[in-house]
Sequence to fold (512 residues):
Amino acid sequence: MESDIKLIDEAGKRLDGRKIDELREIKIEAGVLHRAEGSCYLEWGGNKVVAAVYGPREAIPKHTQDPLKAVVRARYNMAAFSVDDRKRPGPDRRSREISKVTSEALEKIVITDKFPRAAIDVNIEVLEAEAGTRCAGLTAAGVALADAGIPMKDIPVACAAGKIGSHDENGNKKGGYVVLDLGKKEDNFGDADLPIGISPRTGEIILLQMDGHLTLEEFDQALDLAIKGCKIISEIQKKALLDKYQIDLEVN
Amino acid sequence: MTITSSIKRDYLYNLAKKGKRQDGRDLFKFRNISIETNLISKAEGSARVKIGNTQVVAGIKIDIGEPYPDSPNSGVITTAAELNPLASPDFESGPPREDAIELARVVDRGIRESEFIELDKLCIEPNEKIWIVFIDIHIIDYDGNLFDAASLAALAAILTAKVPAKRFELGEDYPLPVKEPPISCTSVKFNDVMIMDPSLDEEEIAEARITVATDQNGHIRAMQKGLKGSYTTDEIKKIIKVSLDNGVEIRKKLYESVGK
Fold:
């Protein structure tokens, strides 16, 4: 059975050759779209995500307006060709849920009381998916918002940690390893997944989900590891924004 | 018409009368076209096409299904287009609207009617099993001329697509059987000037639009006129000639990008 697949060896080396605290390769580019106020293209392992920000603009329909602040509307969408079996176009329950938790995470970071009755639309398009798309989406959204010049308290960033390898080849239980940034097989056959989003400056947690099985101790480890991952990615985000705007600074 | 668009209209029209355009192009020249293929490894074929600032990603998924009763020996293609809200402040999320449906149908017709994909070679067992080719087109940045960008992206994705026979234990994967691609070129008209490959500004003030798809023999394979304006026969003849010339260039580019 494939669930008995060996996700990690005794030396702590994972299927794709990563160490337990190693991220997949991440590439971020800011300002890739012409029409959007701000945008971002992000590759994270096998994930390919584009995010675009529109607004602040009048929130329509009117009943969605908040007279005191802006609403942040994230929309997470997966392309039909982004996964192995074609996904039917349009929102399903999973993408609605991800859109909701992402909106809520962003609302904490964006200074919304500057824009009463407005909407800030954050569109996240997953072109190719390979485990960890919600983290990739939130991370890309953070860069796109910054690129759009939306006032924020910080640039939000997300990363997951998880647990793998708690069964040996014969299916017997053993310790297992807490690892950073689950890959596809680790997500499918691993024991737990803990995606978190943080405000890296303050360390506040703005998104947290978890499924699987973790002891309290393992949870602490996983949380530390995921925050460590977020901090690394945060630097890549800042570099992407600098790469785009540094030229302008030098010219002026 | 709003005040702004009538100002824009006068400006663009006066330029065009002098044979000029906002971005410095000739009237009948396309913007820069770039084609990138095989960027989505989960898809059987994929392409990203940029025409100027317009950006489109197309992906092909191929699956096994049942044939339609009236064509038991041929495969099926279905085309869907999404005008993603990330492409323009005017696109909304939700079920496909009229314009997305029109776009998908025009692209679909271009591919279907030209018999570009050899559907009769996509039969596995007559009456029972055939290959279904899903063509999904995502508009991610909108600066005019979606028809050409979408159809070019679909063509490039199809040209690089592989039938995933191995996954279904039907032998080795093989390239999707195709013939020569028809290249579509869209132009618009305002007052008495015609321009090729309209940008968004030019599209917004256009009175008439025409798409002409031509093949490698210089024959016309599909046409579609849109909007409320009209053309004279001389204008139509002129624009067919121009579309043909541009088609040759674009076809060359397409083949280069897929390594043929």
Observations:
- The mean pLDDT of chain A is 91.
- Residues 2-251 of chain A form a domain with the Ribosomal Protein S5; domain 2 fold (CATH 3.30.230.70).
- The helical segments of chain A are 93-109, 133-147, 184-189, 216-251.
- The first strand of chain A starts at residue 26 and ends at 30.
